[in-house]
Design a protein that fits this description.
Strand order of the largest sheet: 1-2-3-4-5
Largest sheet: 5 strands, antiparallel
Strand content: 35-45%
CATH class: Alpha Beta
Oligomer: single chain
Radius of gyration: 23 Å
Distance between the termini: 75 Å
Structural class: alpha+beta
Order of helices and strands: HEHEEEE
Length: about 130
């Protein structure tokens, strides 16, 4: 007795579904605190976040420093950087106003700058 191609295809699909159900769930990488916010790479990621946001929104921000942060191995490669950065903006009468911003950057250390992505940059209300 010959099976139809459709029945054979359904049988293979069921086998694949059963096999997939027995696979362990992918583990989610944990966020790890940044041990040194003054490290060169972390400072460069913070500068990247401020620069890209400023270029897109013309807010006249300048990078001050990274206050704190966490990193996470990204699914598919690269690293996620969740950083709180301080940035300054010129105020009236020659003053500057400094604020903290929550940023999320993805990138591969050592890769070209155009492969990095700024996913979030928002002011932290004090």
């Amino acid at each position: 007795m010959r099976r139809s191609p459709l029945a054979l295809l359904l049988g293979v699909a069921l086998l694949l579904l059963r096999a997939a159900a027995t696979l362990p769930a992918p583990s989610r990488a944990e966020w790890a605190p940044v041990p040194d916010v003054n490290g060169l790479l972390i400072k460069q990621v913070g500068q990247f976040a401020v620069l890209v946001y400023d270029m897109a929104h013309r807010k006249d921000l300048s990078f001050v420093g990274v206050m704190r942060g966490h990193t996470q191995d990204a699914v598919g490669g690269g690293t996620n950087y969740r950083l709180v950065v301080a940035a300054a903006r010129p105020g009236g009468a020659g003053t500057t106003t400094t604020a903290e911003y929550d940023s999320l950057v993805w990138g591969v250390p050592g890769s070209r700058a155009d492969t990095w992505k700024l996913h979030r940059f928002r002011k932290i209300d004090s």
